[in-house]
Amino acid sequence: MSAGRVHRPETLEEATALLGELDDVMVYGGGTAIQILRKQGLLFTEDYVDIAGIPGLRDLTVTDDDITIGTLVPLRRVETDPRTRRLVPVAAAAYGQAANPRVRNTASAGGNIAHGDYRLDPPTALVVLDATVHLASAAGSREVAVREFFTDFQETDVRHGEMITAITVPRQPDGSRSSFVKMRSLSENDWPCASAAVLAVPEDGFVEIRMGLGAVAPTTVYLAFDVTPDMDEQQAVEAALDIADSVMDPIADIRGSASYKARLGRVAVEQAVRSSLKELSRD
Amino acid sequence: MTEVLPDAQPAGTRQAETEPRYGVGERRKRFDALGRVRGTIRYTGDEANPPGTAFVGVHRSTAPHARIVAVHTEDALAIEGVLAVVTGRDLHEVLGDRIYTGPAFADQPCLAVDKTRFVGEAIAAVLATDPDIARAAADEIAVEYEELPPVYDIDDALRGEAFVHEELRPSSVFADLAHLHGVRGTNVNYEYRQILGDAAAERERAATTVSATTWAPPTHHVPIELPSTSAWVDSGRLEMLSTTQTPSYVRQTVSDLLDIPLSRVRIMTRPLGGSFGCKMYDRLEPLAAALAWTTGRRVRIDATREDAFLLTTRHGARVTGSMSADADGNIVAVTSDVRYDTGAFADVGPRIAAKSGLVAPGPYRIAAVDVRSRCIYTNKVSAGPFRGFGVPQVTWSHETLIDELARELGEDPYRFRRRHLLREGDIATVGTKMHSADFLTCIDEVTKAVGWDDPTPRGDGRWVHGKGVAVGMKAVLTPTIANATLNLNQDGSATLLISTVDMGQGSDTIMSQIVGEVLCLDSRRIHVVRADTDATPYDTITAGSRSTYHTGNAVRLVAEAMRSKLLGFAAERWGVPADELVLDAQGVVHEAKELRDSLPDLVRAKFGARGATVTTAENFTSWWVPYDHDTGLSEKVTEHWFAGAAAVRLAVDTWTGRIRTQHLAIAGDVGRAINPTLVEQQLTGAAIMGIGHTLFDEMVFDQGQITNATMLDYQLPSIKDLPEKLTPVIVESAHRDGPFGAKGVGETTILPIAPAYAGAVRDACGVRITTLPLTPERVLNHLADAADPGKAGR
């Protein structure tokens, strides 16, 4: 394993310049994924741009409408910050179940989604909340809806020369209720076999059910449907399972067969939908 | 890194009488607990590398079974910083067939010579100035293979079409294997039989028979500390610092490998950061010795986490067994066909096949048994010792059988076992009398702890609840040898020299407690020297829970010899018979004449010097009666027995198959707890490891290649996987010959965990699972089969 070159820019401009100039280059944030992949001989990138020295990337800012998570904010902070817990509880819940506390203290919010793994927990919450990813390059900046961000298996919309600077997450709508459920097949600390973030948004007698599913398809999946006033909880669950079934395409591995993972996906969806609707009915 | 010692008590004061001495039976923290937690202990890999050290990178085989046609080393040699590249053929030219080492069979080349036998076998070694260069250069080596038919598993091996080794080559270590020399055309390197009565006839006559084929997969030890070995030549001697549980064995192996006297080999150790059997016998040491000796360089080999998975595993084992009862419910017959997959090298597999085969019927009163236990070569990573030494795999069988037999007869699994368990003085099926193996108290205590007779919750439709119980029986490795040398220092402290390796089990702490108890010293004033074959005496191995009993006895004897010697000094000084003298916490005393001397004064008076030392040395060797040639029986097959039990209450999620442990209780008969705190920790630690083996711990192979040899994919129990409640129970049925009645404890409670869980799953949802681990998917598949009328009753 070669050591790789590490660049330590002090401004965003320097960083994006490096990312644009260098051929085989990767942003180094918390390092939790990069270190493992390098150690396993799966990642041979030559140049790393360590963005730890760039000011402002660690900020977590709140406005009347949303909350913006700087790319270097540790997952643990999204999990535990009182503002995220209050304003985007489904995100706090999902971030709080990634890996283990040591990893969450180190891994960064931007690096997490840049990794693009189909099993990640945080993206399930980000898609139901309709978050926006902020990208910067030497040419300027752009925004991408997180629902469009995960393009294919282990692939994202981050282009050569770009880096994630922040994620903006709209506040959970007033009166909405949410739930995050993660199913593991082996150790309790393991990657998920299936996960589901559900946000139930009541509106004019209808309830919009938004679902983000992790680990059950090559990318994070976003789904939504309306629970009409004539449907009871059981019918809502069945509708959710029907629509979830249509997208489930799990990958078999040592953690389970495709059919078992799909089953866990259904359990996660059912639990999360029921839990959200129960919360709603209590209001 | 050690506890801060109190100042020495002023000589002769009475005050010391009330001070704690932390002797036998007292709770004392490990002497190095703080250092282990804070990371201030120096482990083997922490030692600095002197200038000139060559770091070793290993090129590993990508073929499961193949002839090595050529090894191309030019590209590796061209890399800057590469000092040398060594192949198996290079070493074979110098060392000849001595390159083949191993505790049972000389079948393990430190670098493959003419063929490779598993994916991951070491083929060539790069010596370089830097470890990263060494690893990168190892990747540049290219090997030409001529593929041979692979032997992936036990079935392939027994088909007898391809052979992992052309002929069997017993090593010189075990005399009883000599008759296997030169045997060709087999993958079975050892077979143990146990024949008691006529099991076939008894089974024929029996009222009820249950049968099961069980599978326990290979698993890995995953100690926190990775293996590391440094070796160098100093004044014509081979010196080595290595992570090993078996320094005395390694010394002999290196002596044989290099054909030099034992006096020219030195093996040094440091405390181990866990091992569980993976740092034993021939790991990195033969390669390090061969490279240092043939190149003259100081070499260092560090295993990566991924390498460690390729060094050794636990044996996967399949057991096909049956258990039969007569109309009164007496167990009249047990049959057991045990097949251990030992991988490419026998390692200590033949011993495992025998020592586990002999307890395969279980710790019960059984009229007739027929056991066949085989150790079988395959083209996989070599399997070796692992906490439990093969016994968890056969316990998985006999406890599955008796649980199912109890249910078949409509009896309670706890009370049915209790009725048939071996009692003190009973003869086990292997022919040896039982002593100090209190199964009844163990099973009574664990069932009591989990409230066995309390009603089981009905559950909510999704979660169902159940309870399970199991016992486990193991024989201590016999015969073995332990030696101890004790230096009493003039100031009344002592230095103990033994070759037991402290790997976290706390041996250094309890050995000092034994010395302190005999000599009435504060055990914290006794230092135990790390195993170093230039200084510490021969000890068979630190493994198999043998040290407390064997080395503990040598330590007790050496302390008693010291006491006699000290009383002799006082007798000579005062002109009185030694048998009128007593040693107490203040020193030597003659009550009638009111004579008293502290140890410091006594030793100083004897030698006329401060800092003088008094030395004693003792040996303890256990003995056995070898297995009868035809029946495998022995009237003394072991020095002592381990008896353990587990009871569990759990819930199964019928939606996902996931198991949640509500309460696990474990008990082990330890004879006498030298240090109850450390005993409870051993009982608990073994149980947690057993939980991993029960629920998800497994090395997954695909065509001979491990597919989950990383810490991302290999699963271990995390803190969140522990039972909601875990109760360790110490049972003390003193052994007549144990040091203060004590026996070992490290493996006892790993034995019964898996069958206790499987019994509880059976109780909760009516399915009997015989394949480990009990993954949620496996549980769910069984539930689905049970619900499917076409498959029910399988």
Q: Your description of this structure?
A:
Chain A: Keywords: FAD, Flavoprotein, Oxidoreductase. Chain A: This is FAD-binding PCMH-type domain-containing protein. The complex is a heterodimer of chains A (283) and B (794). Helix content of chain A is 35%, strand content 27%. Chain A has helices spanning 12-21, 32-39, 75-80, 82-87, 89-95, 101-106, 109-115, 122-128, 146-149, 233-245, 258-282, and strands at residues 5-7, 25-28, 47-50, 60-62, 66-70, 132-137, 140-145, 150-152, 155-156, 163-170, 177-183, 194-203, 206-214, 221-227. In chain A, strands 4-5-10-6-7 form a five-stranded antiparallel beta sheet. In chain A, strands 11-12-13-14 form a four-stranded antiparallel beta sheet, sandwiched between helices. In chain A, strands 1-3-2 form a three-stranded parallel beta sheet, with helices on one face. Chain A is globular and about 60 Å long. In chain B, the strands form eight sheets. Chain B has a seven-stranded mixed beta sheet with strand order 3-7-1-14-11-12-13. Among the domains of chain B are: 14-41 and 480-621, Aldehyde Oxidoreductase, domain 4, CATH 3.30.365; 316-477 and 627-787, Aldehyde oxidase/xanthine dehydrogenase, molybdopterin binding domain (Aldehyde Oxidoreductase, domain 4), CATH 3.30.365.10. Chain B has 19 helices and 30 strands. The interface between A and B is medium-sized, with 22 and 25 residues.
In short:
The complex is a heterodimer of chains A (283) and B (794). Chain A is an alpha+beta fold and 283 residues long.
